[in-house]
Amino acid sequence: MLERIVASYEARHALQQELLQEVVVAIWQAADNFSGDASLKTYMARIAQNRCVTHIDKSVKSPQTIELELEHHDTVKAGSTEDQERQWQQLMQHIRSLPLQQKQVLSLMLEGFSYQEIADICGLSNSNVGVLINRGKATLNQQLGQGAL
């Protein structure tokens, strides 16, 4: 779950791994603060989302030179077909191009979180989550040229 959330914010594999490490450290540091008000999965996703947003904010404030990666890295499960991998990479590329709130709610929706859990993680209302998901889906469908996501 954490790898997929990170992949929805960062395209380059090396930076994904670095960001994932930051997320895991942040979760470890915040473990004592877990009160049990929400599920552990929701708590971890909220920390991951916040860390990813901070990462985006830092990268916007201090742009870095883009390094080309010569190695091919898989971000989908082993055993998947080339076509599935290509589709996954294309979806992640389009999700990364969405506005921040749409990116947040769609990445959490793809992880199987309910509207209420997404609202809790992002600090939104249920209806706002629904609106953002519908707008994000419409944008993705338009970009991908498909009927329904």
The level 1 CATH classification is Mainly Alpha
Average of per-residue pLDDT values: 82
Structural class: mainly alpha
Q: Span between N and C termini?
A: 20 Å
Helix content: 55-70%
In the predicted model, the low-confidence regions spanning at least 5 consecutive residues are 65-76
- Cα-based radius of gyration, to the nearest Å: 16 Å
Strand content: under 5%
Compute the number of helices: 7
**Please, how many domains?**
1
- Global outline: globular
CATH architecture descriptor name: Up-down Bundle
The biggest sheet, with number of strands, parallel, antiparallel or mixed sense and barrel status, is: none
Order of helices and strands: HHHHHHH
Number of strands: 0
Here the CATH topology equals Butyryl-CoA Dehydrogenase, subunit A, domain 3
Molecular structure report:
With 149 residues, the chain is an all-alpha fold. It has one domain: Butyryl-CoA Dehydrogenase, subunit A, domain 3 (Up-down Bundle), CATH 1.20.140. The longest helix has 22 residues. The chain is globular. About 8% of the residues have low confidence.
SSE order and pairing:
Layout: H1 2-7, H2 13-30, H3 40-61, H4 82-96, H5 100-110, H6 115-122, H7 126-144
Helix pairs in contact: 2-3, 3-6, 4-7, 5-6, 5-7, 6-7
Descriptive keywords:
Butyryl-CoA Dehydrogenase, subunit A, domain 3, 0% strand, single chain, mainly alpha
Summarize the structure.
The protein has about 150 residues and is mainly α. The protein is built from seven helices and no strands. Residues about 65-75 have low confidence and may be disordered.
